[in-house]
Design a protein that fits this description.
With 315 residues, the chain is α/β, with parallel strands linked by helices. The chain has helices at residues 12-23, 75-97, 104-107, 110-122, 167-177, 198-212, 232-237, 253-268; strands spanning 2-9, 28-37, 46-56, 156-161, 181-186, 216-221, 242-248, 276-280, 298-301, 304-305. It has a seven-stranded mixed β-sheet with strand order 5-6-4-7-8-9-10, with helices on both faces. A three-stranded antiparallel β-sheet has the order 1-3-2. The termini are far apart.
Length: 315
């Protein structure tokens, strides 16, 4: 009777040597797959292999076997032509996965389709949403907890900012979390980051993040303040688990307050509420405290989470 074990290694040759050392010369690899570690924000990515090793039980009369004539270290010596073809397909799937468009290989699996369907059901809008105030403000108070970027496989954080303001905090939050799936949306695009188009795109990103064990962080470009009325419904349609506004402390306080309050009112009309504020440029202005007038809890300041004493105060 055959026994099977799972082994991991940096290469198939390394797995083969480990199998021989642990289970003897009769051990052979019968299945293998290439696994890519995405690293942190695309950095430090690495490949490894996982293989199934089959080991025959020792019998009273050893069977006569024909030695394999493949060259030492070759793929055929390790696991045969079928597994070699499997790894070639895995390499092809990996190449497709890193193209700008979502990889057909990853989204075609039954598990992925099931996740997508489940997310679609969970994110259906309520038939009669409760009324939401036109402007939601949170007065500064030590009793109010400091908001933090949420984590969790498949959860969605959306950061809203003028121009490309949202991209920096999105990448910083990803690094702080140990590596999130950072994407763009709206008027913002960035090389190396997939773009989310509407509700279906958000659901697809969520489903892929569940499979990879990541949180999705979307940097949404609002364009100019006058463009915001056309984007409110699309932002609400993303059904974010957490919604942040990114404000630049270096801009005129009155201008920032005007567009932030206008955006809150537009989102309120779509039954969406802003959870927190991410501040950039606070260390580059003599009057960062003007951000306090926005009345939104501050959770992120110049690349770092806000501490409890800093709630409502930018020093």
């Amino acid at each position: 009777m055959q026994k099977r074990y799972k082994l991991r290694g940096a290469s198939l040759e390394a797995i083969r040597e480990k199998a021989v050392q642990q289970y003897g010369p009769g051990a052979r690899i019968i299945a293998a797959e290439k696994v890519t570690n995405p690293g942190i924000v695309g950095l430090f990515a690495a490949n490894r292999y996982e293989a199934t090793v089959e080991v025959p039980e020792v019998s009273a009369a050893p069977a006569v076997t024909t030695p394999v004539t493949a060259a030492p270290g070759s793929v055929h010596e390790l696991h045969g032509p079928a597994i070699a073809a499997l790894l070639e397909r895995a390499d092809a799937a990996e190449i497709k996965l890193h193209r700008p468009a979502p990889a057909p290989v990853s989204t075609a699996s039954p598990d992925f389709a099931g996740l997508l369907e489940q997310l679609g059901k969970e994110l259906q809008p309520a038939p009669t949403p409760a009324p939401v105030p036109a402007l939601v403000t949170v007065p500064p108070s030590d009793a109010v907890p400091v908001p933090v970027p949420m984590t969790g496989d498949g959860n969605l954080i959306v950061l809203l900012g003028l121009g490309d303001d949202a991209l920096g905090p999105a990448l910083e939050m990803s690094i702080a979390a140990g590596g999130s799936d950072v994407r763009t949306a709206g008027e913002l695009s960035a090389f190396g980051h997939l773009h989310v188009h509407g509700r279906q795109g958000a659901m697809t990103a969520r489903a892929q993040a569940v499979l990879t064990g990541q949180t999705v962080v979307v940097a949404f470009g609002l364009g100019r303040p006058r463009d915001m009325p056309l984007k409110a419904a699309g932002i609400a349609g993303l059904a974010a688990d957490q919604l942040w506004i990114v404000a630049d402390a270096r801009r005129k306080a009155d201008d920032t307050k005007t567009w932030v309050q206008a955006l809150q009112s537009l989102l309120a009309g779509e039954a969406a509420v802003v959870d927190a504020l991410a501040v950039i440029g606070a260390s580059e202005t003599a009057s960062p405290e003007t951000i306090d007038t926005l009345g939104i809890p501050i959770g992120w300041i110049d690349g770092n989470p806000a501490s409890a004493p800093a709630l409502g105060k930018v020093n």
